[in-house]
Amino acid sequence: MMRFAILSLATLSMAGIVPAHSQEAIANRFVLEKIENGFVRMDTGTGEMSICSLEGGKMVCRLTADERQAYEEALSDLSDRVAALEKRIQTRTPDEDMTGIPDDAELDRALGAMEKMMRGFFGMVEDLRRDFEISPADPARPLPDRT
Asked: 51: which strand partners?
């Protein structure tokens, strides 16, 4: 059966369907192990295992129960994510930028907020500097109690 797969790949590569350099990579990717009623096929790239049998002269492989469940869970998760993204696209406003880069109005609001914060901060620093400044005329003046 393995010879059949390699021979098929060789034939396809000669026909130009599968690049010749990928023959070895594909042939070495799967490991077949004979079992009582068919084969177990392991994908060495992903670790996925399938049960294979000959049906009508062709090898038919099916995922094992654990692999099928993991596959269906991953598919369900991806389907949920796609649905959420589609909903987000449908509900966005026409002027909403989907690149994640803020527009000029958002930048102006952010800069205004930062300027207000910085002015308040430097105002507090100036107040503290004045509170702790010792007058040359009165060096014995006690420091203010800020607790």
From this structure: 40, 62
